[in-house]
Amino acid sequence: MDLxxxxxxxxxxxxxxxNLKEIRIPVFVLVLIIYMLTVTGNMVIVFITRxxxxxxxxxxFFLGNFAFLEICFTxxxxxxxxxxxxxxxxxxxxxxxxTQIYFFHALGGxxxxxxxxxxxxxxxxxxxxxRYNIIMSHTxxxxxxxxxxxxxxxxxxxxxxxxxxxxxxGSNVVDHFFCDILPLLRLVCNRTQVNEMLSFFICSFIxxxxxxxxxVSYAAIIVTVLGIPSSAxxxxxxxxFASHLTVVGVFYGTMMFIYVxxxxxxxxxxxxxxxxxYCVVTPLLNPIIYSLRNKEVKGALQKVLCRKWEGLx
Length: 313
Description:
Blueprint: E1 11-14, H1 24-51, H2 58-86, E2 90-93, H3 94-127, H4 132-135, H5 138-154, H6 157-164, E3 173-174, H7 181-185, H8 193-226, H9 231-259, H10 268-292, H11 295-312
Helix pairs in contact: 1-2, 1-10, 1-11, 2-3, 2-10, 3-5, 3-6, 3-8, 3-9, 8-9, 9-10
């Protein structure tokens, strides 16, 4: 292959949302408000799970980890979206583009693994309530959380390194609102089947693997709950994981639509719409679902606020 006409790309132009030029200011304000609410809501969860002793349990340990992860995850892409909406041309250096790809996929993978761990935690709590604190000891919780972070941070390294070594054919326009693997591969000169297959395999391994483990835990929970003799007991048990199931359905549904399917028939307009949902909307839903519908979290928040108020008097 003749590479003499290939240019060395030093920066990429992010197309963003060209169809929203006439309403970009209102959309910018809306996205900014959602981002601020997302960060604030998840910070409250991190704070309350750390400060309130009644929430020092495995469930809320993982929830605090998950909330911190959501702050990081949404901060990888939403600032780029905001820049897209207020500037004519949003440019990212080659290094910054690859960095964004890495952290987006690393944090997304960690989120998948944490959701699987949280589902297993709920199974243990319902299946063996008397042995729950022994099985899910503080040491075990730290080990599970640490492994999820370690695996998530390591797996995207290989595809990102391979992408960094590819040749690009002059065009540096990324047809997306942030740097992602599939839009970037469209700019590559040489054959990208190996990169596409590797990305597909890694995404499928994380998404499908963690989704399967999550669903197995939920299936076991349902079987266990149906064996509870009293209807009140069944209702209480179901309520402990219903919110988790909502988050899992929304998260995996959108992520699998993008990454666990053949890349040849991509509709980037549809992909962008779905990507906006899981980058902007889903992180906002999590604190709402886990907090506003959780009596323990609301009660703990009231206690902390009351103590702070008393301290100011």
